[in-house]
UniProtKB/TrEMBL annotation:
Domain Thioester reductase (TE): 40-265
Gene3D superfamilies found in the cross-reference section: NAD(P)-binding Rossmann-like Domain
Keyword Magnesium: no
Native species: Actinacidiphila oryziradicis
Protein's UniProt name: NAD-dependent epimerase/dehydratase family protein
Length: 386
């Protein structure tokens, strides 16, 4: 157990052309005057950019902390992440300010860091360094220290604090959705998220901030557009299997938690007063057998050959020597076993209870999978069927 401490444009494995909306504003973190502002970290990430879109659609003014050497590069990075999802008439609601979670005080002066909180009523901390191979130390600054600093910022400006944690912080023996975690976890990334999760829960219990803890699991493609995270292992395996015509035989289940559903839950829960002081596991209740994946590919017109995992992996490694898109997947494939969902009993009970009639329902998992494959065919992320 670690001591208690008191990423990319979403798209496909294939190149795509992005849309280019009008430029976003950048400048000092006080330009919104007396309007209430939501400060968002991780705004250029897969979930973070979806949160910005959801907040803006609700009429919120959003201040996005973005890493980059110049105002132009920061604005361009966020514009790429948003990918035309914010209407031109709403661009003025988005402000881009500098900040690097890996640096002390986000790389800002004391005055500059304090100014981030000007007019801020809510902080949504979604930024993190996600790396499942690094130990605790290299991830500490970005994932733990930055969380502690942002808690202090929220406390100083009397803002509520929404922390996007992770199910990686939750021990396998944990049942329910406890606000404060005690069971230890393994792996550097999980340990840093556990430590940060603890910082938030303790700060709330001490009365320093009003906090909500949100713990997503695997976040999958948008339920309507199928806009996906290019770094998600599950979806990369499905796409590469379709391109190569071979699919692995796996003993696992899969769970589809679309990014638009997760972002709606985050925004809805954070905007609900009774949610403060609670934690929410944001993961779809329904899962599928892995066998449903090759079945869905066949239903879409493909004829993949099923291979034992090791033989399928060898085929992918061979293809990766000539195809850079496939090579990106090769580095993420374990040698012996591939699993996508080992939290069979995990369900979003707290969210359904808190939101009641406002809880956003999900389509059946099989329909989501089939719809995503069909959308990938339309966008060219999957090969056309003769």
């Amino acid at each position: 157990m670690p001591p208690r401490c008191v990423r990319t444009r979403a798209g496909s494995d294939r190149p795509q052309r992005g849309r280019h909306p009008p430029p976003l504003r950048s400048g000092r973190p006080d330009v919104l005057g007396d309007r209430s502002v939501t400060l968002v970290t991780g705004a250029t990430g897969f979930l973070g950019s979806a949160l910005v879109v959801s907040l803006v659609e609700q009429g919120e003014a959003v201040r996005c902390v973005v890493r980059g050497a110049t105002a132009a590069s920061r604005a361009a990075k966020l514009r790429t992440a948003l990918d035309g999802r914010v209407a031109a008439k709403d661009q003025h609601r988005i402000e881009v300010v500098p900040g690097d979670l890996a640096e002390e005080r986000l790389g800002l002066s004391a005055a500059g860091f304090a100014a981030l909180g000007r007019d801020v009523s809510r902080v949504v901390h979604c930024g993190a360094r996600v790396n499942m191979t690094l130990p605790y130390g290299p991830l500490y600054g970005t994932n733990v220290r930055a969380t502690e600093e942002l808690i202090e910022l929220a406390e100083a400006c009397s803002a509520s604090f929404g922390y996007v944690s992770s199910l990686a912080a939750v021990g396998r023996s944990v049942t329910g959705e406890p606000f404060e975690l005690h069971d230890s976890v393994s792996g550097g990334y999980g340990q840093t998220k556990w430590s940060a999760d603890r910082l938030v829960s303790v700060a709330h219990q001490e009365g320093r901030v009003r906090a909500v803890i949100l713990r997503p699991g695997r976040i999958t493609a948008h339920s309507r557009t199928a806009r996906s995270n290019p770094d998600d292992l599950l979806e990369r395996v499905i796409r590469v299997s379709a391109w190569l015509g071979v699919v692995p035989v796996l003993d696992t289940r899969v769970r589809l938690s679309p990014v638009d559903w997760v972002s709606r839950l985050v925004v809805a829960l954070f905007g609900t007063e009774r949610a403060h002081g609670q934690a929410y596991h944001l993961i779809a209740a329904q899962s599928l057998l892995w066998a449903d994946v090759p079945a869905a590919l066949r239903a879409a017109g493909y004829e993949p050959v099923e291979l034992p995992y090791q033989r399928w992996r060898s085929a992918v490694l061979a293809a990766g020597r000539d195809d850079p898109a496939v090579a990106r997947l090769c580095h993420a494939l374990p040698a012996d076993r591939l699993s996508f969902d080992d939290r069979i009993g995990c369900e979003p009970r707290n969210a359904a209870r808190t939101l009641a009639g406002e809880y956003p329902d999900l389509p059946p998992a099989a329909g989501l999978l089939g719809g995503t494959i069909a959308a990938w065919q339309r966008t060219g992320e999957l090969p056309s069927v003769p």
